[in-house]
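Backbone-to-sequence.
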């Protein structure tokens, strides 16, 4: 669906009358809500105002909206209602309204209902929109999360939490149409701030049918008047009478399926020997990813061919490859400039002069990478790289795909396979060890436990944080394979000690290479051959 600028910046998805009526009827019939006052802070063209007048004939209904034309349409649409005197609709900017004074003059139980804007703060920033709240760290994000984009938030999330604050000292109910991800984030915040003051539930809705939007959406209901319950029932749709499952807080986490989580809770824990990692982050695919044209000749994303050494080139499998189990061949290679984060890249000029010239020729692209993580780092730095990257066998899973599809990855063309940074993986020295752990990871107990914690509507549902919550040792015990696990764990410890000694020797060798030609950048045109 194409968004106009105005529609985009105001998150303008008008609620169809039939959906608004279904929502209000659900509140009345299923939840026995009979408010004295109904407030819709962003009423648009008034669908919830009309539905409220229909179902709550004696309640006072107040609607506000920033769009003057919508306010006029809404007022005209309720003029013929027999109880139209119960409705008050007027223009007001949500972010400038004195809500404290307005709410103080509304006595009794209140129902806050509506469909707040479906737009994020980053989208508004792109357009320099003023339709945004004052910046604050309301999600309590850490600095690094803000740098990497985790600080982005939905405007509806911010508004929803304002509604919760309004009910901190009074009784009432909040019923909001929003993205499912927003509902979950709000629930997490409410649990942290208010404990069990609010109980609630979620009804899934078909956003494609109602709004033409391909997104997971829902009706989220929070109430101070219902019986307190730490879990939230999730219904398949507004007509469902029985909940499909419960989401709730367990062990400091919000889990998607509390019953399934409880069943496999004993599998929770972290392994010191096996740690999930993300793939390579370089933020410059046009330069760092290449296709093989013929022996020692490669074409980059700019369409230019170069003769390069293969020392620093490795097979690359992307998230789409892993998600679709295309793991026996590769389409691209990736240029790996470091063996560990922060390693001096000057050693490349001696080990692979053509590659070094290639990097020099494209230095502008690499210096213009926007992420702040590259600041004050060696030239041509990458992230998500370490000794684990160069192990021959791996178990990988796409973070983007909506299913638990683990793949066993073997070396390709005699080299370790690398992944992009949307892939999560474990790495191993031997095929036997990889196959043993693969059996643990893909066992039914593991899959059910992981599934209980994953919210599949997320943009990147399968995260390292979730994967690391699964104890492979506990799984091995569950499957009667604990002794085998211990044998591999002991082997890893011995290998780690040997690698430490090797690493020190390798660092000394690199320093020697650097001393031969310190800061001597190669500039000769024949060091890197461009193939026309």
């Amino acid at each position: 669906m194409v968004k106009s600028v105005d529609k985009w910046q105001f998150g303008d998805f008008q609620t169809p009358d039939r959906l608004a009526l279904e929502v209000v009827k659900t509140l009345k019939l299923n939840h026995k809500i009979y408010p004295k006052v109904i407030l819709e802070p962003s009423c648009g063209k008034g669908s919830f105002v009309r539905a409220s007048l229909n179902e709550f004939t004696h309640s006072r209904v107040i609607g506000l909206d920033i769009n003057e034309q919508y306010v006029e349409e809404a007022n005209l649409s309720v003029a013929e209602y027999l109880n139209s005197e119960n409705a008050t609709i007027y223009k007001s900017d949500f972010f400038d309204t004195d809500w404290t004074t307005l709410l103080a003059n509304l006595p009794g139980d209140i129902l806050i209902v509506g469909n707040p804007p479906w737009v994020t703060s980053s989208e508004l920033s792109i357009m320099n929109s003023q339709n945004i709240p004052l910046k604050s760290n309301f999600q309590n994000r850490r600095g690094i999360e803000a740098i990497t984009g985790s600080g982005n938030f939905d405007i509806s999330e911010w508004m929803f939490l304002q509604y919760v604050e309004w009910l901190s000292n009074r009784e009432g109910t909040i019923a909001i149409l929003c993205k499912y991800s927003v509902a979950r984030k709000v629930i997490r915040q409410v649990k942290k701030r208010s404990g069990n003051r609010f109980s609630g539930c979620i009804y899934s809705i078909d956003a494609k049918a109602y709004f033409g939007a391909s997104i997971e959406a829902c009706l989220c209901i929070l109430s101070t008047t219902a019986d307190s319950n730490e879990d939230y029932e999730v219904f398949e749709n507004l007509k469902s009478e029985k909940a499909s499952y419960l989401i709730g807080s367990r062990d400091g986490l919000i889990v998607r399926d509390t019953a399934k989580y409880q069943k496999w809770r004993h599998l929770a824990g972290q392994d010191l020997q096996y740690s999930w990692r993300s793939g390579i982050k370089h933020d410059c695919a046009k330069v760092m990813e290449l296709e093989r044209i013929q022996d020692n000749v490669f074409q980059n994303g700019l369409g230019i061919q170069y003769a390069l050494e293969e020392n620093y080139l490795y097979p690359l499998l992307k998230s789409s490859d892993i998600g679709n189990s295309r793991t026996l061949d590769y389409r691209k290679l990736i240029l790996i400039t470091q063996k560990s984060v922060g390693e001096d890249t000057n050693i490349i000029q001696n080990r692979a002069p053509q590659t070094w010239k290639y990097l020099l020729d494209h230095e502008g692209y690499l210096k213009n990478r926007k992420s702040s993580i590259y600041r004050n780092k060696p030239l041509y730095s990458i992230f998500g790289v370490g000794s684990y990257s160069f192990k021959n066998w791996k178990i990988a899973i796409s973070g983007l795909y909506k299913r638990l599809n683990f793949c066993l990855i073997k070396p390709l063309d005699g080299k370790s396979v690398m992944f992009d940074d949307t892939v999560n993986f474990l790495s191993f020295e031997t095929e036997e060890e990889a196959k043993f752990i693969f059996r643990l990871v893909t066992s039914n107990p593991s899959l059910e436990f992981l599934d209980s914690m994953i919210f599949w509507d997320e943009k990147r549902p399968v995260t390292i944080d979730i994967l690391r919550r699964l104890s492979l040792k506990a799984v091995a015990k569950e499957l009667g394979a604990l002794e085998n696990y211990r044998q591999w764990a002991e082997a890893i410890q011995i290998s780690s000690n040997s690698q430490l000694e090797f690493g020190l020797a390798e660092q000394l060798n690199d320093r020697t290479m650097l001393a031969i030609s310190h800061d001597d950048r190669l500039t000769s045109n024949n060091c890197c051959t461009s193939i026309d």
